């Protein structure tokens, strides 16, 4: 068997795998003091973002924004609501849908978590030097 790559480090997929694992470790470390998983953080952050820009979003809108599976999103959001970090209310226009908003506790937790996540991102991606903007442009093409 022969690969088109001379080295595993020449494979963009393999490198993306390795980078993803390393970055996820950095995120777990940053979020541990806040008792949040990365998925929980992303869904809280997406909820906050959508609330600030469009008003209380539906769970489906949060899933679409975050790029997550709607069923998993619903389960995670339910757990966050159980922790009093967000509220889920029936949508007046659709009884099956839920509208979301952050509680004061959710906003407070998210403020601290965001600062730690952004610090971890800066530290992790510092290795890219001035190429971070090019990296972001390349990732946008793939997203």
UniProtKB/TrEMBL annotation:
<dbReference type="Pfam" id="PF01047">
    <property type="entry name" value="MarR"/>
</dbReference>
<dbReference type="GO" id="GO:0003700">
    <property type="term" value="F:DNA-binding transcription factor activity"/>
</dbReference>
<dbReference type="InterPro" id="IPR000835">
    <property type="entry name" value="HTH_MarR-typ"/>
</dbReference>
<keyword id="KW-0238">DNA-binding</keyword>
<feature type="domain" description="HTH marR-type">
    <location>
        <begin position="9"/>
        <end position="143"/>
    </location>
</feature>
<protein>
    <submittedName>
        <fullName>DNA-binding MarR family transcriptional regulator</fullName>
    </submittedName>
</protein>
<dbReference type="InterPro" id="IPR039422">
    <property type="entry name" value="MarR/SlyA-like"/>
</dbReference>
<dbReference type="GO" id="GO:0006950">
    <property type="term" value="P:response to stress"/>
</dbReference>
<keyword id="KW-0804">Transcription</keyword>
<keyword id="KW-0805">Transcription regulation</keyword>
<dbReference type="GO" id="GO:0003677">
    <property type="term" value="F:DNA binding"/>
</dbReference>
<dbReference type="InterPro" id="IPR036390">
    <property type="entry name" value="WH_DNA-bd_sf"/>
</dbReference>
<dbReference type="InterPro" id="IPR036388">
    <property type="entry name" value="WH-like_DNA-bd_sf"/>
</dbReference>
């Amino acid at each position: 068997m022969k690969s088109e790559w001379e080295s595993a480090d020449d494979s963009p997929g393999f490198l993306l795998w390795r980078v993803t694992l390393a970055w996820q470790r950095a995120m777990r470390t940053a979020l541990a003091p806040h008792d949040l998983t990365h998925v929980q953080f992303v869904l809280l952050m997406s909820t906050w973002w959508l609330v600030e820009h469009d008003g209380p979003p539906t769970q489906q809108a949060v899933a679409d924004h975050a790029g997550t599976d709607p069923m998993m999103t619903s389960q995670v959001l339910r757990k966050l609501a159980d922790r009093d970090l967000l509220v889920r209310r029936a949508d007046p226009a659709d009884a099956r849908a839920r509208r979301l908003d952050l509680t004061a506790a959710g906003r407070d937790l998210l403020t601290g978590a965001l600062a730690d996540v952004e610090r971890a991102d800066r530290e992790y991606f510092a290795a890219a030097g001035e190429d971070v903007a090019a990296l972001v442009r390349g990732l946008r093409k793939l997203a």
